[in-house]
């Protein structure tokens, strides 16, 4: 499979039969496809990562592919290529990423209504809803746990580095965490996890929305990005963390424009400064501050080393952005911008 375009709900894939069990992407041939192109052209699919197929089982594999032009150069929508270059340039820093992927389940018949919500109105109570629904159990508090559980197991089987899941701050809103992953694996595993989510939800006749604010008066959907380098994880790494946050603060407008597929227009509806979100118009940071643009967890502050969390990315963040080709250089340092 390969990402079809900038619409996250549009992943493309097809089946190929081979007479051996591939152990490495290079074992498989480059294939072609006419999808997303005119009838006069086609794109080439180059395998880049293998996963076990949780739907067919056995020796079957899901294959993540790079989309290339006929001259073997990446398509304009193929952001993995520039990401890989950035990761290779920063390999000595051992960059780790962890993405908290939120999503909302929508009714399969009425796709504008969240799964399980009343046809008219909202679930009760509508005041401080996250207190009741975050991490909740019970039929009155959360809907779609079967989707979440099936997706979680599919990721574990496939080999996606999924590290957790939980109910979020409104009914039918869920989150799973991918990582920590080093380098380009973060983008690959995130793409595959989304593909698996769409497959699982489809089988249950449920739609997944990647809109960062599907219900205007309720919490939005994000993809908080946790990041560290080897220097940040060492003793005294908090100084390196603070330097990186300072570098991020100087390009806030550039980053928020990159943090959703529509140049920040979608994220503007989410980052209002309310409901555990920061204000999109200004950069902020703090320890244990979930209303800040960038948060340093309290346990990281206490340990004096670890990672930081960029809370600005929307749930629709693309591979280009959590693992970006953009960087800020300092004296003998390369700070990867999570953008």
Short description:
By secondary structure, this protein is of the alpha+beta class. Helix content is 24%, strand content 23%. Helix 3 (145-158) crosses helix 4.
Structural write-up:
This protein is of the alpha+beta class. The protein has two domains: 2-78, Roll (Ubiquitin-like (UB roll)); 88-336, Glutamine synthetase/guanido kinase, catalytic domain (Creatine Kinase, Chain A, domain 2). It has nine helices and 15 strands. Strands 6, 7, 8, 9, 10, 11, 12 and 13 form an eight-stranded mixed sheet that branches. Pfam families: Gln-synt_C.
In helices, the fraction of residues equals: 10-25%
Overall number of domains: 2
CATH C-level class of the largest domain is Alpha Beta
Q: What is the count of β-strands?
A: 15
CATH superfamily of the largest domain: Glutamine synthetase/guanido kinase, catalytic domain
In the CATH hierarchy, what is the architecture of the largest domain at level 2?
2-Layer Sandwich
Structural class: alpha+beta
Poorly predicted parts? 2-7, 320-339
Q: Helical stretch count?
A: 9
Shape: globular
Largest sheet: 8 strands, mixed
The whole-number mean of residue pLDDT values reads 86
If you compute it from the alpha carbons, what radius of gyration comes out, rounded to the nearest whole angstrom? 20 Å
CATH topology of the largest domain, what is it called?
Answer: Creatine Kinase, Chain A, domain 2
Strand content: 15-25%
- Note the gap between the termini: 24 Å
Strand-and-helix sequence, N→C? EEEEEHEHHEEHEEHHHHEEHEEE
């Amino acid at each position: 499979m390969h990402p079809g375009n900038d619409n996250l709900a549009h992943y493309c894939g097809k089946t190929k039969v081979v007479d051996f069990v591939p152990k490495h992407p290079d074992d498989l041939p480059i294939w072609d496809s006419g999808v997303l192109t005119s009838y006069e052209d086609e794109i080439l699919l180059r395998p880049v990562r293998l996963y076990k197929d949780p739907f067919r089982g056995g020796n079957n594999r899901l294959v993540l592919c790079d989309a290339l032009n006929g001259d073997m150069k990446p398509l304009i929508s193929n952001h993995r290529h520039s990401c890989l270059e950035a990761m290779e340039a920063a390999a000595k820093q051992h960059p780790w990423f962890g993405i908290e992927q939120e999503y909302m389940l929508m009714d399969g018949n009425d796709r504008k209504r969240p799964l399980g919500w009343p046809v008219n109105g909202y679930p009760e109570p509508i005041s401080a809803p996250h207190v009741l629904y975050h991490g909740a159990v019970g039929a009155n508090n959360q809907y779609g746990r079967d989707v979440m559980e099936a997706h979680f197991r599919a990721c574990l089987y496939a080999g996606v580095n999924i590290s957790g899941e939980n109910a979020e701050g409104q009914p039918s809103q869920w989150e799973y965490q991918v990582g920590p992953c080093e380098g380009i694996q973060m983008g690959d595993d995130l793409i595959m996890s989304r593909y698996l989510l769409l497959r699982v939800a489809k089988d249950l006749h449920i739609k997944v929305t990647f809109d960062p604010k599907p219900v205007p008066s309720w919490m939005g959907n994000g993809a908080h990005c946790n990041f560290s380098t080897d220097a940040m994880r060492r003793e005294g790494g908090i100084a390196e963390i603070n330097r990186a946050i300072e570098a991020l603060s100087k390009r806030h407008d550039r980053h928020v424009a990159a943090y959703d597929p529509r140049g920040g227009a979608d994220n503007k509806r989410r980052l209002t400064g309310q409901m555990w979100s920061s204000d999109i118009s200004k950069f902020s940071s703090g320890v244990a501050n979930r209303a800040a643009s960038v948060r340093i967890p309290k346990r990281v502050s206490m340990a004096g080393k670890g990672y930081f969390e960029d809370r600005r990315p929307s749930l629709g963040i693309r591979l280009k952005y959590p693992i970006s080709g953009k960087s800020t250089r300092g004296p003998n340092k390369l700070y990867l911008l999570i953008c």
